[in-house]
Amino acid sequence: MNDPRKNIIQKAKSWIKFAEEDLRMAEHALKLSSGCPCRLIAYHAQQCAEKYIKAFLVFNEIDFPYTHNIRKLLLLCGKDHFSALEEAEILTPFAVTTRYPSLDEDVSKSEAIYAIKIAKIVREYIRNMFEWK
Q1: How do residues 52-81 score in pLDDT, each as one tens digit?
Q2: Is 115 exposed, middle or buried (0-12, 13-18, 19+ CB in 10 A)?
Q3: For the chain, what is the domain count?
Q4: What's phi and psi for 99, nearest 5 deg?
Q5: Closest listed residue to residue 94, CA positions, set 104, 86, 102, 82
Q6: How far apart are CA 132 and CA 121, in angstroms?
Q7: CB atoms within 10 A of CB 80
């Protein structure tokens, strides 16, 4: 017999795997000695946070829409979780404005570093929520 909870855990772990790849990419790009792609660092930091939140939602069997809007995703997590991670909302614009020339906005190195910091806060908060760590 197939354990449905095991399948849910596996799906959540898949989201986490992708989130970790985004974080590694952001941290690696930050180390470039020249041509540091700050906008891409911010994008990958946003993606890390978004995917960790989606892992939490999958783990808790909460349906979510196709969106990059961190606020919308956090609201689905519940009031307590939203309050703890509310600051992550600032990452939302990096999901789109950093990827397209007509929408691009400059991202400073300090903003890129801060984006990684916020992604790590989301990461640690959510990792601590999982009972199968």
Answers
A1: 999 999 999 999 999 999 999 999 999 888
A2: buried
A3: 1
A4: -105, -15
A5: 104
A6: 19
A7: 8
Amino acid identity of 88?
A
Per-residue pLDDT, 42: 96
Whole-Å CA distances, 19 to 26, 39, 42, 106, 126: 11, 17, 13, 24, 12
In a domain, 87, yes or no: yes
Contact 37, 109 (CB under 8 A): no
What is the domain range of residue 56?
4-127
Confidence of residue 1 (pLDDT cuts 50, 70, 90): very low
Beta-carbon contacts of 71 under 8 Å, excluding residues fewer than 6 positions away, are 89, 92
